[in-house]
Write the C-alpha cells for this entry.
Amino acid sequence: MTTRTNDVDHELVRAATEVARTRCRGDNHTMAAAARARDGRIVTAVNAYHFTGGPCAELVLIGAAAAQGVYELETVVAVGDRDRGVVPPCGRCRQALLDYFPELRIIVGGGEGEGDGLRAVPVAELLPSTYVWADHRLDAE
C-alpha cells in the first residue's frame, strides 16, 4: 500500500533508499533511483559512474523501465548512497525525463515547514523556460 503525504510517494522513497543502501558500493554506483509506473509497479536502478561521464541513475532507470515493459512513469526519486537522502536530478536528467515523460513528478527536498522536507513537483517546474523536444519535432511525412 502506498503511503502519501503532501503528494509524496513514501514507498517510492523507501525503495530508492533501500537500493542505495544495499546496491551502491564503491565509486562506480553512488546513486539509486526509483520510479512508480502508471500501473503501480516500482522500477529501480543505479548510476554507472565512469570518468568519461557515465549515465545517472535516472537515465539508467528509463532504460530499465523499458526493459521491463514499463513506458509510462508517474513519479521518480533519486537517493544518494551513504545516507545522503533525496537528491534532485541534474540538468541533463531533468531534460531527458521531461522529454520521455512530460507529466512526470519528481520528488525533491522541500523547504522550511514542509514536514519531512520532501515534495513532489512536475518535472517542467525544475526547468526554467522549458524546452520540450517533442513539441519541436518536424512530422516525418
About this structure: DSSP finds three helices and eight strands in the chain. The longest helix spans residues 10-23.
